[in-house]
Amino acid sequence: MTTMLLVAAGGGLAALGQFVFAHAIRSRRRLSALNLVACAALGLVFALDPPDRFRSLVAVGFLASVAPMATVVLATLRLTRTQQYRSAATFFAANVVGGVAAVMFGFLAWKSGITLYHKIF
Q1: How many domains does the chain have?
Q2: How do residues 41-81 score in pLDDT, each as one tens digit?
Q3: Range of the domain at 70
């Protein structure tokens, strides 16, 4: 039950952040940057392997909710409605593939840094 409350609290904070971001970010590039940074941070948190409570609040609750995939889809739909199909496909693919790559980068950056640290010291 505690895990569910932590996820809900993190998701609630992310919803407030998403509300602010949706009105503040009008550029597709900034939206993509926010999505990729949130995905990289998500990968980093999972690489750190924190306690379950922290992971529930920060990773599953906040970071997974703040990555604005719904906003990415809406921006893609706006592009398709104006018949900018190539831009829509590129934007969507860059965010989906880039998001997965950013999660992997965040995870592997931490793990490879720890491995390198242990080899040096």
Answers
A1: 1
A2: 888 888 888 888 888 888 888 888 877 677 788 788 889 99
A3: 2-120
